[in-house]
From TrEMBL:
Name assigned to this protein: DEAD/DEAH box helicase
Domain Helicase ATP-binding: 34-232
Entry keyword annotation includes DNA repair: yes
GO molecular function: ATP binding; ATP hydrolysis activity; DNA binding; helicase activity
Species classification: Bacteria, Bacillati, Bacillota, Bacilli, Bacillales
Pfam (any one): DEAD_assoc
Keyword entries, A-Z: ATP-binding, DNA damage, DNA repair, DNA-binding, Helicase, Hydrolase, Isomerase, Nucleotide-binding
Species per Swiss-Prot/TrEMBL record: Paenibacillus ferrarius
Length: 1450
């Protein structure tokens, strides 16, 4: 008998016959694995892709089921005998299809066998989130023998009372691609699920793990087997002797032609891909992001002119993915571009070649991906690593060598995550089985992931889940006397909706508009940035957005082949520290080899070395050699033993510091955290920082000698403290806490998509609630642990800093005139960052804007606005709610919940909030005390009841801050407001101690001044929660007060426009000062002020009045001129308005100066006349004036008169012949600037200023007129909203932007405009460029046929009262009626009189000699019927135009 027969002889005859005829000789891994599995030992199989490892694991399991069926015959009980768990649904479907196919072949073999009666068949099923309800129901009635599923679906099966019944019979479980699961939280989750499965089955289920890439294999084996009696369970390890052969190549596309545009840059890459694909029937291309995947597919298809490629990634709908996989497997698809969605062991059929675009980041990923080619047993896998940038070549060299040698990275198996434990705890409790703390401890000890978890940590999590903290919904009942754990009403639903550790998707589903077919998913942020009508690419097709709904978008096919490529956040990878060290070693060897011989000889030797050892093509080798040589020529080469710090100035004189560290993005990001803390400690602030795989970049306003010493002085001890502090302050920590809370089921999940902003909001609320207990609340420590272990690399950073101090790693410092080749990549990234700069606030501004105070708001907006913040009706309703007037307590359970939510209470207090008598309430309390759920707390004046689990808090109330916070918070939350005296009386404490409690609670934002209290005079406190609720409900009542109003209604009420219409033609400086106060801070073209803005508001405006106001020091002006602007802009300010002009000065304080010598002179000499400056500089006044004006446009200098700018604004023909040099004194604006000005007060003052001028504030208004970014003003507005002073909403119809307004203005919008009688016939001409015109700025222009509106000088809105009648273009040459004349008046004489008033004002206001009218409503006036009105006015015809003279309008 042959060795082959010996190995197969163990199997059922039918299986033996089928395998021999189908595959012939078993592979080495199959022979070894079958022996272990048949013996019943837990088994771990490690074997290359295409070595037959799937049947190595599954055939013995199939054999066991077949033999059991044969031996039991009709008494065989249906049930799942074998579970197959895989990480991906796609892999599930693949294995399921294979098993279906195998079983069909086996049944066919059995039918023709003489022993067919011994074959009872095998049934296989698949259970994932995609399984239909009908299939699930059928499976419960008739379970399959083998069930293929995912870890999450297995968890759900065990957590379902009916579904878990079919798992009672499970004898074996196969975990496929175990390396992928073991490396993250899904593995921890599965580890506990496996122990739960053993407990449910009442026996040890045999575990079989399978993977092509696992190292160290002993550690993976321990993870698979778990523990028994404090010893690792025995796991047999099978490592295949089969050697997988790889044919690798590292290459690059041809460099793009100089000056190539965006489209042409793709051409060399696409052409290189097509060259590589030549001669291949099927090619698989891997991209590192979904965006690149879609873009690559589009470019390939466009280049060849027809569809040869399709895309495959997680955001393509399942149906589309399955169709693409089918086409690939059938050999009907030439090329498939995929992300990691096809990385794991899915059988994609025959693939000739795998091309990896850029780095796969790890050898394991590279092996998995390239292993898709030559998937059959014994086949060679052909793969190409294609670098788009030559800086990636060293990394690809290292990876290619490791892939060929199958030298994979060590798997780091995480342990002890409390969020995973919490979810499984709730799931176990949901089943209602006998469960106590002792059983739970034994179960955790058996799981490898939780074997070493300290008892105090998981007990702290159990406290949270059982409702110790009133702000967390209890999900499980814990009897501390007996240790029993029992389910609550919410337990089952929480366990089912919160399954798994994969964060719930916030992506938007994409559906076809006509058919409703699900096409895929898009990133939430991409959807928010897209509009109806936009075209994007998804799955090789172009789609146009037709409808946007809160939960999905609808699209239809589009012809646009150059459609937008969507983006998906959080997709970028990075190389590991280990890979970084090896890359550094390669750099060092390259440097040494290139310097060892003459240039030509060395280049040829290195080229051959790269080809033989690292599989480099000629173009890649030449490119890498060129890069290294260029770096050697200008700088030191960074290696594993040499770090380089280089600095240089860019074209804006900003200083770039590049720390070339090849140790990977994770370590460099950690190092950057420490560097930023160190720089801050030394008073140094960078404009921009960035950490990448190959280094760190910092940009400063100028060269700073202290930067390099500060970086080099960080010790490994300081680094730890710096990084911990940085993590605690970062968004990383908040995001980690939110994920933990979600997985722990503390933040409820749902079966539908939850918007990302809502998830963030819920997470922030939980952090805020738990913050007083941060030393005790377990998720705070867990979030910090996760951040330090998963997101930063502190151990390796400390190692690097230590070896730097020891001198093992050298530091080379260079100051260059230009960036080195390696630094140039950083510079280009920075340019891109500035071009596409987000609206995020800079860190220093974030910090400085944290201090908005209620008193500040009262000072700026008035105390009355604060007092009106809360509606009296809302206050009354809230008081009723807190008193439980609508929902009185009606049972002992409700009283217990009341004590948990509100804290201690006496019998009389409980009677007030219940519907029962004192006797019944007392009986309830006795019952709760006897059950051990409540206890008595004794105060000197009264006895109160508390929850039993809170006794420790009350016992340490006076001495422990956490206890005080716990108890005091609920006291505050249960009252509309309270005084310090009431607090002292309630807890029987000294008034001074009560005052300190209040002070601490105010500092931690647990309480706040009551929103209805008089600021600064009335000491009344309210819980922050209650205050927020009062404000929120009050604001909602305002938002619901009326529908959106039309833009024309807003125009009628806009404050700037109303003031313009209600102007009194009063001459003099006092009136001019009031006008400037209204317009201060608005940077507008110089010529507009005295030709448009002042004369419109003051018909008797005099230029000397403006000069007098300037020279007397009552007003100041500032200049600004953006690149490309023909005319500079000027803003006026009242001299005392420091809060308004300080941020304008701050914005230019670090900007480059065009005339630094002249500015220094002004700063040293003070305010000086032009003639004096001429003597100091020796320059003629005319030259000096031009230089001073350059400083004006830099925002650095000004004059105490306006006359110099007036002359500058005149055309050359209007300027006086003789040069005037005595016009005012020039001074540096730095004399007005105080760098430490109050940014909070300034932002609040600007917010008030804009609200007073425009009535409401939007992002566009802030962008046009405010020196602060939108985020700063939005922070102030949100704070004002929290205090009830402003309301946000969509108040104006068709204005699709967030709008903030005061309550007074909202009320005004919904009233009829109260215009004085005298103003009803008064015409107002508003220039299109005037800030009083909201159209084209805050509002879209109305759609009127034949009119192209524009904010252009010479265009006007003609208003009668608040009604817009006419649109005038080019100073009257073209006139359009906005409102039909038939709607305004039926009597022609009235129309003529109105036109006379309008034209008279037009002449007077703009000092015109005449008005020439060419067209009316787009028709030549000589042919328009409206010429009759002009004739009645006495207008003269001039060819095809009509002319009006002042004499005709008097």
């Amino acid at each position: 008998m042959t060795d082959n027969a010996l190995k197969l002889s163990h199997f059922h005859p039918i299986l033996r016959t089928w395998f021999s005829s189908r595959f012939g000789e078993p592979t080495d891994v199959q022979k070894q694995a079958w022996k272990h599995i048949i013996s019943g030992t837990h088994t771990l199989i490690s074997s290359p892709t295409g070595s037959g490892k799937t049947l190595a694991a599954l055939l013995p399991c199939m054999d066991r089921v077949a033999k059991t069926k044969q031996s039991l015959g009709d008494s065989y009980q249906a049930g799942v005998r074998v579970l197959v768990v895989t990480p991906l649904k796609a892999l599930n479907n693949d294995i399921h299809d294979h098993l279906i196919h195998f079983i069909a072949e086996i049944d066919e073999a059995a039918a023709s066998s003489p022993k067919k009666a011994d074959w009872h068949g095998l049934r296989v099923g698949v259970r994932t989130g995609d399984t239909t309800q009908s299939t699930r129901a059928s499976m419960l009635k008739n379970p399959p023998d083998l069930l293929v599923t995912t870890p999450e679906s297995l968890y759900l099966l065990l957590t379902s009372p009916r579904a878990r019944q079919m798992l009672k019979s499970v004898e074996q479980i196969v975990v496929d691609e175990i390396h992928d699961l073991a490396a993250d939280k899904r593995g921890m989750h599965l580890s506990l699920t496996l122990e739960r499965l053993d407990a449910w089955c009442g026996r040890s289920v045999q575990r079989i793990g399978v993977s092509a890439t696992q190292k160290p294999i002993e550690r993976v084996a321990r993870f698979l087997g778990g523990w028994e009696a404090d010893q690792p369970r025995q796991v047999g390890i099978i490592e295949s002797k089969a050697e997988k052969q790889y044919a690798l190549q590292v290459t690059m596309p041809e460099p793009a032609k100089p000056g190539a545009d965006k489209e042409e840059i793709w051409t060399p890459l696409v052409e290189r891909l097509l060259q590589l694909m030549d001669g291949c029937s099927t090619v698989l291309i891997f991209a590192n992001s979904r965006r690149l995947c879609e873009r690559m597919t589009l470019r390939l298809n466009d280049h060849v002119g027809h569809e040869i490629a399709k895309s495959h990634h997680g955001s393509v709908a399942r149906e589309k993915r399955l169709e693409v996989e089918r086409l690939l497997k059938a050999g009907e698809l030439r090329c498939l571009v995929a992300t990691s969605s096809l990385e794991l062991g899915i059988d994609v059929g025959h693939v000739d070649l795998v091309i990896q675009i850029d780095s796969p980041f790890s050898a394991a990923a590279g092996i998995q991906r390239i292993g898709r080619a030559g998937h059959a047993v014994g086949s060679v896998s052909r793969g190409v690593l294609l670098a788009r940038s030559r800086s990636l070549l060293p990394e690809l060299a290292v990876l290619s060598r490791r892939i060929a040698a199958r030298d994979i990275e060590d798997i780091r198996i995480p342990r002890g995550s409390l969020d995973v434990l919490a979810q499984q705890l709730v799931a176990m409790g949901a089943m209602g089985d006998e469960l106590d703390v002792a059983q739970l401890a034994r179960l955790l000890a058996q799981s490898d992931s939780f074997h070493e978890l300290p008892e105090e940590r998981w007990l702290a999590m159990l406290e949270v889940l059982s409702g110790l903290y009133p702000f967390v919904r209890p999900l499980i009942a814990w009897d501390r006397e007996t240790g029993r754990l029992e389910r609550l009403a919410a337990t089952q639903m929480a366990a089912l909706t919160g399954a798994g550790t994969i964060p719930q998707s916030t992506a938007y589903p994409v559906h076809h508009n006509e058919t409703g077919l699900h096409l895929g998913e898009l990133d939430e942020e991409f959807i928010h940035e897209s509009s109806v009508g936009d075209v994007f690419q998804l799955g090789t097709a172009s789609w146009r957005i037709v409808r946007k709904r809160p939960e999905r978008i609808y699209v239809q096919e589009a012809d646009n082949r150059y459609s937008e490529i969507p983006f998906w956040r959080g997709e970028s990878g990075g190389k590991s520290f280990e890979l970084g060290v090896q890359t550094g070693q390669l750099w060092r060897e390259l440097r040494d080899r290139l310097q060892a011989q003459s240039s030509t000889e060395a280049d040829l030797a290195v080229l051959n070395w790269l080809s033989e050892q690292y599989f480099f093509g000629i173009e890649a080798s030449q490119s890498l050699i060129s890069l290294v040589r260029n770096q050697i020529a200008v700088n030191t080469v960074p290696t594993d033993t040499t770090l380089v710090i280089e600095s240089f100035l860019d074209e804006n004189n900003q200083a770039h510091y590049i720390l070339h560290s090849l140790f990977g993005r994770k370590l460099n990001r950690t190092w950057l955290m420490a560097i930023e803390k160190q720089l801050k400690r030394h008073g140094l602030a960078a404009l921009y920082t960035n950490a990448k795989d190959n280094g760190i970049e910092l940009i400063f306003p100028s060269l700073q000698d202290a930067v390099v010493p500060a970086i080099l002085s960080i010790s490994f001890i300081e680094a730890e403290q710096y990084v911990i502090e940085a993590v605690a302050e970062s968004g990383m920590f908040g995001a980690a806490f939110q994920r933990l809370a979600e997985t722990s089921l503390l933040l409820s999940r749902s079966f539908t998509r939850v918007p990302a902003w809502l998830k963030r909001l819920r997470g922030q609320e939980l952090i805020k609630e738990a913050l007083p207990f941060k030393e005790r609340f377990p998720l705070f420590q867990e979030a910090m642990r996760e951040c330090l272990e998963e997101h930063v690399d502190l151990p390796h950073l400390q190692h690097i800093l230590q070896v730097i101090q020891l001198g093992t790693i050298q530091i080379a410092v260079h100051r260059n005139h230009f960036p080195s080749p390696l630094a140039a990549q950083f510079k280009s990234d920075y340019v891109a960052q500035k071009i596409y700069e987000s609206d995020a606030l800079t860190e220093d501004l974030q910090v400085e804007l944290l201090g908005f105070s209620r008193q500040m708001a009262a000072d700026i907006f008035g105390a009355e606005a604060i007092r009106r913040a809360v509606s009296p009706q809302i206050m009354e309703a809230e008081e009723q709610k807190l008193a439980k007037a609508d929902e009185p307590l009606a049972s002992a359970a409700e009283v217990l919940r009341f004590l948990k939510e509100r804290g201690d209470a006496s019998i009389p207090e409980l009677v007030k909030v219940s519907a029962a008598s004192e006797t019944l309430v007392a009986a309830w309390m006795d019952e709760l005390v006897q059950q051990g759920k409540a206890a008595l707390a004794y105060f000197s004046t009264t006895t109160r009841y508390i929850c039993k689990d809170e006794m420790a808090f009350y016992a340490s109330l006076s001495s422990d801050a956490v206890s005080r916070s716990f108890v005091f918070q609920r006291f505050a939350d249960g009252k509309l407001s309270f005084t310090t005296e009431e607090l002292a009386v309630h807890f029987d404490i000294d008034p001074q101690l009560a005052a300190s409690w209040v002070e601490t609670a105010l500092a931690s934002q647990q309480i706040a001044e009551a929103p209805f209290a008089d600021p600064g005079t009335e000491e009344l406190w309210t819980s922050s929660k209650v205050a927020s609720r009062l404000i929120r409900l009050s604001l909602q009542s305002y938002r619901r007060g009326g529908g959106a109003i039309s833009p024309f209604t807003y125009l009628a009420h806009m404050p700037l426009r109303r003031k313009l219409s209600d102007r009194a033609d009063v001459p003099g400086m006092e009136e001019l000062l009031a006008i400037i106060q209204d317009l201060q801070g608005f940077f507008l073209p110089v010529s507009h002020w005295e030709s448009l803005l002042f004369p419109t508001r003051q018909l008797a405006y005099r230029k000397q009045d403006l000069d007098t106001l300037c020279s007397s020091g009552q007003i100041v002006w500032l200049g600004r001129k953006e690149p490309g602007e023909k005319e500079g802009r000027i803003a006026f300010f009242l001299a005392e308005s420091h809060s308004l002009f300080e941020p304008c000065l701050a914005a230019v304080s670090h900007m480059p100066v065009s005339q630094p010598y002249l500015l220094t002179l002004l700063q040293e000499k003070g305010a000086s006349f032009l003639s004096k400056l001429g003597i100091e500089t020796g320059k003629p006044p005319s030259v000096l004036l031009e230089e001073l004006l350059q400083l004006v446009w830099d925002g650095q200098a000004a004059n105490d008169q306006f006359a110099p700018l007036r002359l500058h604004a005149m055309g050359a023909s209007k300027k006086p012949d003789k040069f005037q040099s005595g016009l005012g004194r020039w001074y540096a604006l730095s004399s007005l600037y105080e760098p430490t000005f109050d940014k909070q007060a300034s932002a609040m003052q600007w917010t008030h200023h804009l609200l007073e001028r425009f009535g409401l504030v939007t992002k566009d208004v802030v962008s046009a007129f405010c020196p602060f970014p939108w985020e700063a003003i939005q922070s102030a507005l949100r704070q004002l909203e929290e205090w009830g002073i402003v309301v946000r909403g969509l108040f104006i119809a068709d204005l699709h932007a967030l709008q903030f307004a005061t309550k007074t203005f909202i009320s005004l919008l919904h009233q009829q405009p109260a215009i004085p009688l005298a103003s009803q016939t008064k015409f107002t001409l508003v220039s299109a460029v005037d800030p009083a015109n909201p159209f084209g700025l805050l509002l879209d222009w109305p759609e009127v046929a034949g009119i192209s509106f524009a904010r252009k000088q010479g265009n006007y809105l003609a208003l009668k009262g608040s009604e817009w009648l006419y649109w005038i273009e080019n100073n009257g040459k073209r006139i359009y009626q906005i409102t039909s004349l038939a709607d305004t008046a039926s009597d022609p004489s009235i129309i003529v009189q109105e036109l006379k008033l309008m034209f008279r004002q037009f002449l007077k206001q703009h000092q015109l000699r005449k008005i020439v009218i060419d067209t009316w409503n787009g028709v030549r006036i000589s042919e328009a019927p409206e010429q009759a009105y002009l004739k009645l006015l006495g207008a003269e015809k001039d060819r095809t135009s009509f002319v009006l003279w002042p004499s005709q309008l008097s």
